[in-house]
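Supplementary Text 2. Reproducibility record for the structural model of the 776-residue chain.

All settings were left at their defaults, and a single model was retained for analysis rather than an ensemble. We include the record here because the model underlies the residue-level annotations in Supplementary Table 4.
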Amino acid sequence: MCMPRVLKPAAICLVLLASMAQAWAEDFDAAALEFFETSVRPLLVERCHKCHGDIANPKGGLKLTSRAAVLTGGDSGAAAIAGKAQESLLVEAIEYRDSLQMPPDAKLSQQQIEILRKWVSLGLPWSTAEPQTAEARANAPVEFSDEQRNFWSFQPVRIVLPGDLRDASWPKSTLDRYILAQLEEHALKPAPPAGKRALLRRATFDLTGLPPTPAEMKAFLADDSPDAFARVVDRLLASPAYGERWGRHWLDVVRYADCKDLRDIGQPYDIVESYRYRDWVVGAFNRDLPYDQFVVDQIAGDLLPAREPGTVNRDGIIATGMLTIGPWGPGDADTQKMHTDMVDDQINVVSRAMLGLTIGCARCHDHKFDPIPTADYYSLAGIFFSTHIAVPQISAPYNKVPLVPKEVITKSEAHAARATELEKRLATVRDEEFALLAKSSVAQTGRYLLAAWDYRHRPQDKAAQTAPQFAAEQGLRPDALPQWIDYLGLSSAEMRLLNVPLRDHAAKGVHGWKTDRAEPILLVNTNDQPVNVPGTIPARGVAIHPGPTAGVAIAWRSTRHDRVRVRGSVTDAHAACGNGVDWTLEHRKPTSTLALASGSIANGGKQAFEPDEKNVSLESVALEPGDYLQLAIFPKGEYSCDLTDIELEIASLADDKRTWSVAEIVDDVLDSGKGNPHRDAHGEPGVWHFLDLDTTHGPKRADAGPNAPLAAWFAMAAKVESGTATRDDLDQIARDLQSALDSLLAAPAGNPPNNPAPLAGWLAELAGDKGPFRAA
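Retained model, structure tokens:
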């Protein structure tokens, strides 16, 4: 620290008087000298010696390198008065009492100030021994005191026989003699024998953590044989519950956890394989693995040879999982520090669990009471530095160690490469076949135009019929007709389908549907673990995301007369941003809509379905064929992060085997022919619908301008709606359009009919991967 050159007159007098009265050398006890070495000297070196160390021109002429230098002081006189902290200039400076403020760059912490105040109050103890250099400390022999050597935990195990017993008839075993010896030493008597019922409960709880079953209790009470209890103990020790009960205590010792952080489950830096180590520990207890092998496997099991030639020591590798479940963070910009923290945690867990010692303190200094020098800590650290738990970096992923031989890995990689190649070829073939399917379907364009009109205007007795069912009756493709209905704008506003399939969207195994815009979107997580896309979708869960101005919905269609019970909830899947969503659950009939439940969740919120009105019940909803139960999610405020996890379960009250869950779409959401609308788990087609509720973005229509190919068809459709034309007139328009397309298809290459541009463009659109003939 930099002491000033100006000192107040009163302070000068105090310093001079104290200096004259103060002896230059004093004897200090061991505790005071140790306090100086462990607390004061490191602080002076760290914060003061830059300006007041052993340098040519120290600031203010003051050196803080010896007791004599402190008492002599600098240009302003003595820096401290031994035994009088409050009157010492040094303490005044570090407390920032006046303009005198040292160190000038930043005030010491309160703990550091108290260290220096105590030092002055103790009389400025200073060790006469010069501090050793790092090289000298490294080469100096480690010396342990007799007190350290005699510490109880370092004494060898020895057999201590129990003394003479006053009640020699009580012990039934050698162990009982030790128990009785301790009781008699404290003038206590053994408790009376427990009854059989209490004995069985105690043993069962102790060994398995569970109560005995009624059958076990009955059998034990009825067994009067001398070895009845011994056989109970053998049975309990052989139970899988024994390892589960006692293995958990060891898992506590080694700081076991299933994940790093509940917010980041499944990330590369999460400990997703920790369950393997947990199961190994439970198995070790159940197979009575000797303790020495139990310890060796966890520290170095990956280095032990396998039992069978040509295999790997699978159990040994899993056992070393103990070293990988530390509480270090997911990553650090300072990679050296991160790696060092990993090693420190590994030293801590090994020393505490295996040695009963806290070696971690020796990372910074020799232990005071235990014979653990810093050199031993870093010798042990060198071993762990040679291991590689993770790649030290931000969001550090764990290194993976295979549990099978290299030959198996090589073969697996070859199979994976072959599978990748076949998937690419399959995708190419599939795309080619889909293109051929769309092109061949163009010859049916006129029929689809009329079928889309007829379905939109079907009679009331066919209101429950789905578009795929209607298409099948007409001999048309069930997957294509709903797309034509959307394409022509004949869907009702609330039944516009999400029509663009997604595969591996933002993460492997996350599939779904969208429109030709970015949102709305429906996503299905087919993985067995949660996935962040961002926003966490639960394992095998379903999530939907609204658009910026309107909602998105999942609708379930009833295929019969029924009464159902409805359960479900909505959960904001991305608590870090967005403003939450509004939601509604509705019962939609062809002519009316009944609100069943609704709500609003804030960012990160969750709500279960509750009826909106007292006279509305979710326990018994009466349905007709063709009715829909629709769960809709709407944006509110900033919507971009509002991915919403949904649960929707429907159960028939008439048939307990007929239940539906939105999760049932997980397995085959993108299978061919099972798109949108989607079948249910009972094989009924067209039950689940994924809907875009945004009426401001209608389907793409080919009627722009007077010369557009469909302009005449839409014009005639309007006349039929108004009653000034008939369906036969619309049928003729459809036939004319088909005839024009047929002529274009039949025209020789390079010699198209006159004025083909609009029609040729439409033909390319119909046969394209975004046209109404695309394969679902």
